[in-house]
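cache lookup: miss for this entity combination. No prior model stored, computing from scratch. Input as submitted by user K.M.:
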Amino acid sequence: MAPALPRLLSAGAWPRPLRLHVLQAATPGPARPSGRTLGSAAAAAVSDPQAGSDLQDRVLSEPLKHADFFNVKELFSVRSLFDARVHLGHKAGCRHRFMEPYIFGSRLDQDIIDLEQTAVHLQLALNFTAHVAYRKGIVLFVSRHRQFSHLIENTARDCGEYAHTRYFKGGLLTNAPLLLGPGVRLPDLVIFLHTLNNVFEPHVAVRDAAKMNIPTVGIVDTNCNPCLVTYPVPGNDDSPPAVQLFCRLFRTVISRAKEKRRQVEALYRLQGQEGAEGRGPADPALPGTQASLDAGPSL
Amino acid sequence: MAASCVSCGAVVSQRLLLRPRVSLAPRQVLWRAAELQSVPGPQILRLKHVTVVTTKKNVKALRRETYTVDFIKKQIEEFNIGKRHLANMMGEDPETFTQEDIDRAIAYLFPSGLFEKRARPVMKHPEQIFPKQKATQWGEDGRPFHYLFYTGKQSYYSLMHDTYGKILDIEKHKNQLQAKGLFSEKDKTTDLIGSRWLIKEELEEMLVEKLSDQDYAQFVRLMERLLQGGAAGEFVQSFRRSVTVQSEKQPIEPVQHDAQGMAFSTSEGRRKSAKAEAVVYEHGNGRIKINGIDYLLYFPVLQDREQLMFPFHFLDRLGKHDVTCTVSGGGRSAQAGAIRLAMARALCSFVTEEEVEWMRQAGLLTSDPRVRERKKPGQEGARRKFTWKKR
């Protein structure tokens, strides 16, 4: 991790503790309407009684106290990334200038992506996705690669989120009330499996999500521009094993986060009832007991 | 001259600038009687002028009418109550009052001479009148129900997704069979004959979404690809509509027998303002009599006689039928065309169905709809304009 950290700093990433503060401040709770949800009254106030809001606060604040609450590190390793051919980039002529920090080297004119950095970025991205899913955010999978369109739509449907692998209409995010109906709720996270569109230009949604203050996770290949992506993950986006690995990772992480949310809510509700009956509240779940709580999906 | 015009223009524009909100509608002046003063004593009535500035109404931007679910329900209730009232009015049983009865009753009670059928009074179920609309697409928490909601065309894209999934399944199945060596080239079932793909409007109605021409073309291409892979199942059949064969609608005249026992058949034909009635005998020499006159003398022009010859020549029955016909109205060409149509229709009764279909495709059984176009005012003829003079 030590050699990675100065590289992160040189790449312009924020130092770790600041990011957590930013995370706590930036991620909106579901009860408070954010600036993005344009005039949606439906998403707003459910008037909770005092105990309810305490429960809500505890449920939402609990994951933020741990560095890796959802234990995303165990889902992949550098070896598994290598086996899925994530390190293979494009030829040196296609290289984008801003991807140079993430490239390990070049072999026979083909760029090789540094998997150590990829692992770090992927862990951050998966962790963020898990937190967004835990807080019941809307996740939108975007890609314009026809070969994997079916796979990505299936992935989105399986984890109960949304996908857009078709022609992206102009004002979909920036003019959503007109195109999708008044009072629509915009996605809280956009995941790009392919940052480029069919003519090898940056996808319009990258810029639009940045305009609408929607955080993005994007898999950036050596010919992509990682600038506007909030959590770029340098990696191969053209090989089927690589894309299948990423789809599997995102699906697992989102399902795990939702399952964890259900469990934590149930646990706190039980404890709340027990407290009301006169017994003291039990300690909230620690990360050590995660393995017991994780009844759920395996790798 | 130009300078003065410019200055004029400047002055005018200044004036316009000074009064930016000049309304074009006339000002209305309202006279209001003065209020009685509260102080007692001799009261002076003062007339108050109150001007009401009337401006043009703001025309709101056209938005698509959205009908709520409650509104539609109320309309359905009103329709049902109205149906019962109508049945009582007509003296019929309200329970067994069908839509045809409603149409007849409305046509009786509100007779309309309007030519446009769609402009006449109509009473139909609200589902057929109000266009189908989508209900709200998301729940209370704002999360949309459909996983492809953010594409904008969720039904269409989910249909494409499912179709592609079926194609992949068929290919996988075929690969498995080939791996086991059990795959055999089955002959494609010909249950596609007599049916056509949905047209774009029908598909739009089915999906309750607007489609572009490219979307529709892509859909048809995907369906064709699905058909190539395997036999058409119910899924594909739901997107096909049957095409009625045209020739089944052709009415064929019954064969009659006259006093001598000769078989013949009669029919009519019209062309422009000529009306003809032809009697074609089954066995004969090829003689044709028109209004009692031989065809050679009645039609001196070769072109008209060729028209008479056409139906028989087409069926290779040139010298085998005798024809007697009467014709009136029109000119020589119109009469020839009318007789030709009448003879062709009469021949249908002596000929196989296949040959009837051939005649229909050749255009022998279609009445020519062309009539003389009226002359319009301001023009010399129907289309000819008066000579244009530059000055």
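stored under new cache key. The interface with chain B takes residues 30, 37, 40, 42-43, 136, 138, 140, 150, 153, 156-157, 160-164, 166, 169, 172, 179-181, 184-185, 187 of chain A (CB under 8 Å).
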